[in-house]
Amino acid sequence: GKSGYDHFMIKEIHEQPRALRQCLRERVDEMAGTVDLDDLGDLSPTGVHFVACGTSYHAALYGAQLFREAGIPAQAFLASEYATSVPPIGDALVVGVTQSGETADTLSALRAAQKRGARTLVVTNVVGSTAARECDHAFYIRAGPEIGVAASKTFSSQLAALNLLTLGMTRSDEAREVINALRELPGDLQRILDESRAEEVAETYTGAGAYFFIGRGLQFPVALEGALKMKEITYKHAEGFAAGELKHGPLALVTSETPVFAVIIGDDEKARKTVGNVKEVEARDAPVVAITDGQTDVHRYADHVLEIPETHERAAAVLANAHLQLLSYHVAAKLGRNIDKPRNLAKSVTVE
Ligand code: F6R
């Protein structure tokens, strides 16, 4: 049941701290600062192709970035496109990211890779799913069953799982720092769920004509996911952009009727450039909502701030996403949408 919540989606949003603890349990050696992937055997990939759809594709974009940061060539592909035109695989490991393990497009991409002799691994939530049975290796995110059609806790758990995979398969000077951030993540997330002002922001912008989301680097997939969630459950127009792309076209859409949600973490060059993009939209009278740890001066240009604590940018992505989940949920609730079963959508898409 919904355990007193109005919808499965909000119940599942609130289950995230527990889901994350499950994902990390017995895999992380905090003393040694290492991740144990023993059940996967020795996978030292020289390259990685991620294949996935929808929300899982956003997780894949994040995962590919983690591998690249560790010096391993990695790229995320939309599964439907990968199967249509399979890129040269060489000896890359092909990683499917699929909550259900049953998505037809993702299965096709994995099968196309296998046909070319590639090793395959699936990051999935469902033990015994088709992808888990067909791939050479399976890594379980252990999020528990997700009933709401819109993916919520499984996305957070995919991000955590992809951190574990990268840490387990590569050497990184940052490993200990990332492990510490992952360990803090369930508690930080709980505080966001308890204290987020996303409902207030949702109330302010329920009547907006469109919603835009921007982010750079690891926060770019968060922007894409924020927009996808908004589309799915509110039926309103929403788009996610790489912050730097805004001025290459989409800026023409920005008006006082289109709130822009900017994810800005840390105070490095990426963050400062995104603040620059925020100034561009503010100059066009767009309302700005900053999802930020407050290390830049973005609050000077923002109408609202959804705060997250200072942590590693990898963990910050999960925290920023939680605010955006709540935002979409509350907009959808105010509009009276069928949140757990949005029109035209199915939980598991078994046709190509
Ligand atoms: C979005 C959503 C879909 C799925 C996509 C892939 O909320 O649920 O975009 O993420 O259909 O599903 P899986 O992960 O089961 O392959």
From TrEMBL:
The active site is at residue 347. It comes from the Archaea. The gene is glmS. Homodimer. The lineage of its organism: Archaea, Methanobacteriati, Methanobacteriota, Stenosarchaea group, Halobacteria. It catalyses: D-fructose 6-phosphate + L-glutamine = D-glucosamine 6-phosphate + L-glutamate. This is Glutamine--fructose-6-phosphate aminotransferase [isomerizing]. Its EC number is 2.6.1.16. It is found in: Cytoplasm. The keyword Cell membrane does not apply. Catalyzes the first step in hexosamine metabolism, converting fructose-6P into glucosamine-6P using glutamine as a nitrogen source. GO terms for molecular function: glutamine-fructose-6-phosphate transaminase (isomerizing) activity. Its main location: cytoplasm.
